[in-house]
Amino acid sequence: MKNVGNLISALSLHASAERKGKNEYFFKTGKGQYGEGDIFMGVSMPSIRKIAKEFQEISLSELQKSLENQVHEVRLCSLIILVYRYQDKQTSIEEKKNIVEFYLNNTKYINNWDLVDCSAHYVIGQAVLDEIVDRDLLFQLIQSTVLWERRIGIVATWILIRNQDIDTTLALSQKLLQDTEDLMHKAVGWMLREAWKVDADTVESFLIKNYKNLPRTTLRYAIERIEEQKRKKFLQGEFG
User: Exposure pattern of 221-231 as b/e (b: 16+ CB <10 Å)?
Assistant: First the structure.
């Protein structure tokens, strides 16, 4: 039976000192930065996904241990395993409920933006679509004092957007306009950009209506893919 020790050993075989250094810099692990104290072993995402596939059947009790691990890639691999488990056609509704409960009980270990972004929409967002959890959960998450739980709440809507629902994203974004964290400004802008692809007129109206309260980073992310001349006018507050 596969266990957390096997998982860590498999990841270690793909680790490199060069990638470790790059990851520590990229994920802001320095003193006072959002990732302060996070530890990396230096494993690439393709390798992590490959190993996650191999360990997809590991028990939730072993996943609990791996998700509590201090090494970033071990936690990341654990979350991708959860995603694969949830997505598996053989996974029952009861098992999906257990996965969602497990995820929500362990948000304190989902403590960097990539950990959120690889999992929130595939687990929590999909659970909303599957009516396993109520949409109100997302509104509860964005009211959290914990940055990463707020990010889970908004990023979870990515899968809703892909299913033509942008209303939830807009409602959550409205409530997050006063958030002071740059990583939340980026997340909200990212989701608005995705929503723009579904209904540009509605998102444009939202941006115009809330222009004075939009963090600059949110606006830049939201309009990143629109035509350049129009984008420049938006940045200057010129509409029409």
Answer: bbbeeeeeeeb
Q: pLDDT tens digit string along 184-225?
A: 999 999 999 999 999 999 999 999 999 999 999 999 999 998
The model's pTM is 0.95
Residue whose C-alpha is closest to residue 126's, from 94, 102, 151, 161:
161
In b/e form, how buried is each residue of 67-88, taking b as 16+ CB within 10 angstroms? bebebbbbbbbbbbbbbbbbee
Integer angstrom CA distances of residue 12 from 71, 109, 222: 11, 20, 38
3-state helix, strand, coil in the chain (%, to 5): 65, 0, 35
Contacts of 149 (CB under 8 A, 6+ apart): 107, 141
Contact indicator for 14, 47 with CB cutoff of 8 Å: yes
H or E element: which one contains 111?
Answer: none
